[in-house]
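2024-03-11 09:14:02 INFO receiving multi-entity request
2024-03-11 09:14:02 INFO entity count = two
2024-03-11 09:14:03 INFO echoing inputs for audit
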Amino acid sequence: MTTTVAHDQVHAIAQEVFAAMVDGDLGLLLPWEGELPALDDALVAWVDLFGDWSGRAVLVTAEGTAQELTRALMGLHPDEPVERADLEDAFGEIANVVGGNLKALLPNPGTLGLPRIGSDLPPLEGAVRALHLPLSWRGRLFVVDVWVTTAAGSTTEGAS
Amino acid sequence: MRALVIDDSRTMRRIVSSTLQRIGFDTVEAEHGRDALDHLEAGERVDLACIDWNMPVMDGLTFVTEVRANPAWRDVTLMMVTTESEQSQIVRALAAGAHEYLIKPFTADAIRDKLDLLGLVPAEELA
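2024-03-11 09:21:47 INFO inference complete, emitting structure
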């Protein structure tokens, strides 16, 4: 089976998630312009997809950005400290919603794993990164990657 | 009115609960389907359950099936609140006994509109 997942579709999903859950505005998650900065304190959230099309939806951002997202999601004051458990839960839930909506694009959707969080992305056997979408949320780098297992025979469209 | 909010994400429980509270619900939270059944079996009376699908221990579809199998809980309105957005999954949930289906991401207005359809928005809120 060959499945096409386009940059535009994934960007639209991310925009919708941020508009509904974080910002209340569709226009605050934009394509990243220019060189990508190094993320020394990267936080990674991912969900695995299983089925005819198997792979992984991955979000990467700086921990400080994830803290800001957590405050926005949970309605916390800008100066309010963010507990580690809340940070991991909130960032993981964003990955869960992005992954779930990505799954809905597929012609024969399978099942969605539970969200996971870490400072590094563990390897997914037989998978290749099929889509890399660096975005800017309020000027901060927020990356959406899609990995597919080679057995899935999936492709992506680079047009954005 | 009282609502049971079932989601393994504390963030999502907080978002759904605060939205329901603004509409006029008292809320109680559960981390998964088994936890929610424990609340009901302990005598918790709720008018509405908002149910995530993918959860550890017991998923939302199993919870819906369990609730619908018990006549004592027939008055509980069941609304799935989930990322599972394929038509086949919606049909499965409704066939199992869910009354409504809300896809994540959602807005507060979307929850309110679904509850309005179910007749669960207090009259003073509709005014």
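2024-03-11 09:21:48 INFO post-check: The domain at 2-126 of chain B is CATH 3.40.50.2300 (Rossmann fold).
2024-03-11 09:21:48 INFO post-check: Chain B touches chain A at residues 8-12, 14-15, 18, 54, 56, 82-86, 104-107 (CB under 8 Å).
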